[in-house]
Amino acid sequence: MKNNKLLIGAFALGVLLSGACSDLESETYEGFNSTVFPKTEDDVNTLLAGQFYEQFNCDWTGMYSADKGTTGSVDYVALRFADIVTLQPEALARNSNAVTDEAVSLLNRVRVRAGLKEYKTSDFASLQDFLDAVLLERGHEGWFEGWRRADLIRHGKFIDYARKYKGSVTADERHLLFPIPQDIITEGRGQVIQNPGY
């Protein structure tokens, strides 16, 4: 757990707001002040399974207005721990330009929780093989969660996948960026230029 304080911190900051979960206490974790974070391997597995809110009795109702939460004053990011756990091995591998035992171990945390066979470092002949495995795992883990487009663009495979798997004949490089709304361009008075192809 000590090696994952960055993961835990990102999860705590991105997902949980102060005081929302009554079953967890505030602690300091090696200099990182956090309201909530997983304290045991069981907590981590619960986070990976996406069951955190039910397990730890999180109550978001106090942060919203009296009209049953249809409007509220607080925006919060819903980010699953598995998203972070699958991003870190990619970052480690890209940073070291190699497949490391730590990166493979982190990827395996999600695979083991899902009941899949663990990878070994020797399973990957190259860095690209490992990055492809991470991309595939994120595709499985983030099904219908809105990660795929950004992942494919980051891996340089968005256009190829659109052509290969969606049969697109119109996909091209301009689709990597969205068009900038015209009112933003107008308001920019020449400082904001439309993205290429729009």
General description of the model:
The chain has a two-stranded antiparallel sheet. Among the domains are: 2-63, no CATH class; 81-156, Serine Threonine Protein Phosphatase 5, Tetratricopeptide repeat. It is built from 9 helices and 2 strands. The chain is elongated and about 55 Å long. It is mostly helical and 198 residues long. It has helices at 5-15, 41-48, 52-55, 81-96, 101-113, 127-141, 148-154, 158-166, 182-187, and strands at 27-29, 32-34.
Helix run count:
9
Strand composition percent: under 5%
What's the rounded overall pLDDT mean?
Answer: 74
Query: Rounded to an integer, what's the Rg over CA atoms?
Result: 20 Å
Principal-axes geometry comes out as elongated
The profile of the biggest β sheet is: 2 strands, antiparallel
Note the topology:
Elements: H1 5-15, E1 27-29, E2 32-34, H2 41-48, H3 52-55, H4 81-96, H5 101-113, H6 127-141, H7 148-154, H8 158-166, H9 182-187
Short description:
This protein has 198 residues and is mainly alpha-helical. Helix content is 45%, strand content 3%. Among the domains are: 62 residues, no CATH class; 76 residues, Serine Threonine Protein Phosphatase 5, Tetratricopeptide repeat (Alpha Horseshoe).
